[in-house]
Specification:
single chain; about 160 residues; alpha/beta; 5 strands; D-isomer specific 2-hydroxyacid dehydrogenase catalytic domain-containing protein
Length: about 160
């Protein structure tokens, strides 16, 4: 555990299990933010945390920060932060708005719709079992675009 007990300033907390956590850590430091990895924070320093940048933190992690003033989600979703007891109701929760994130999500949705239309899961299952599945088409034809309605839930950048 690293201790910042000799420094009395506020610190920011970073928590994520993403492999690119060091990239986020470096970006925050480059911008002058005194940031500490939640996995390395000494017990004496939790009260100094005033800002937290997180993705899906474990229950109780943010409760260790009695002086927390704001929580930022590393992704567009804040569902894990809205769970009972996760973030005090009076604290603001912010999230990242990134055009590239929205573009990637749109690409993923298109992939999902096309995969469903073309029964790709059935073909992948047949391939895994080393079977030539000629009966997939017999179980029903592929769905044409005109036959498919897709609903988008949400009003934000992603929606």
């Amino acid at each position: 555990m690293s201790s910042l007990a000799t420094d009395t300033g506020d610190i920011a907390l970073l928590y994520t299990k993403w492999a690119n956590k060091p990239v986020y850590m470096e970006l925050l430091k480059e911008r002058g933010m005194p940031v500490v990895d939640a996995d390395e924070l000494a017990e004496a320093d939790w009260q100094r945390v005033t800002f937290a940048t997180v993705w899906s933190p474990p229950a109780g992690l943010l409760a260790k920060c009695p002086n927390l003033r704001v929580v930022q989600s590393l992704g567009a979703g804040v569902d894990s932060l809205l769970a009972a007891g996760q973030v005090p109701q009076e604290l603001p929760i912010t999230r990242i708005v990134d055009p590239l994130m929205a573009q990637r999500m749109a690409t993923w949705v298109v992939w999902g719709v096309i995969s469903w239309q073309r029964k790709m899961e059935d073909y992948a299952a047949a391939q895994r079992s080393c079977q030539w599945a000629v009966d997939i088409e017999a179980r029903g034809s592929n769905r044409d675009n005109a036959e498919v309605a897709v609903g988008v839930m949400g009003l934000g950048v992603m929606g």
